């Protein structure tokens, strides 16, 4: 070692190489999928849970949408939690046909608390359901969503995350780049991990969870990222979160950078908090059981820390270019030719994904601005780390009511091709 900083920077470079290769392999795997047989015979019953806080502008369209899904009416019920609302969310949801439950609790505030409250109420009902489906009030759902989730349940899967699409990708460049980010994650992370037998993570909406899972392990996930928390909780028990690539839910993306940063800050705070609590548990359980899937969960939950690490390394590498302060071993670990392939891939893979899902023409312009969105994660993540112990819920405001007829049902052709 030639420099004192080598004690820090050499291990850091090894970690960067490991994560870079890992991400590249997943991206390659996520570029295609196998043809699968699907069983679209409705068998499972569903309790649909929608937690809504002051969502009178959008919840009505969602309930109408859910009532028209391609699934027998007698096999599902729609429950809307009007959570600490000061508007007409309860009245609008009830008029649209939902079974509304009003919750008032100013101490336990947040989606995680509302979900647990509703899960308990459903469990005490006379009717028993096979699985919960969870949506956000601003969502719209593809007509075949429940058929797809029914198919996954029939395959023996217990926890499934649906494909998070966008219902307003052309509203602004922020909504467009946000949509691109979700499309990338859907293919280059969720689909890839599912294909090779690893566990992915729940995404907050479009989720399917067997009621027996809630009954056995409980919910009790009340962090700012209750979805990630529950995924990691289950993973410590060896329970895999699966991926429903054709179970599509259309999510409303925020349209301004300020709203985007506010929403992502909440995610960053929750993910840092979750990482601090679950990385030790995943490591200990994974080593004890020899379960690679559990150890892989560390990659999932440590992503915000990896972004911080690469940010620090990037700054130090610029300094090192002018005044050597550490030993660069990146090209000793992997040859330049491999780094070149990975560099080309990081630009090529997103283009392939956008071509596959046939995005609106406007998205190609937004793709040019995509790097701005990516780099904006750096200050968000830094602030999120400092605020990781702050668990005050921040609500994302939704004001634009959109019907399913107004949303392009992207990837529907792919769904029909896989149906047998």
From TrEMBL:
InterPro entries (alphabetical): Nucleotide-diphossugar_trans (IPR029044)
Pfam families in the cross-refs: Glyco_tranf_2_3
One term of GO molecular function: transferase activity
Membrane-spanning parts: 12-32, 305-323, 329-355, 367-386
Keywords noted in UniProt: Glycosyltransferase, Membrane, Transferase, Transmembrane, Transmembrane helix
Family: Belongs to the glycosyltransferase 2 family.
Protein name: Glycosyl transferase family 2
Annotated source species: Veillonella rogosae JCM 15642
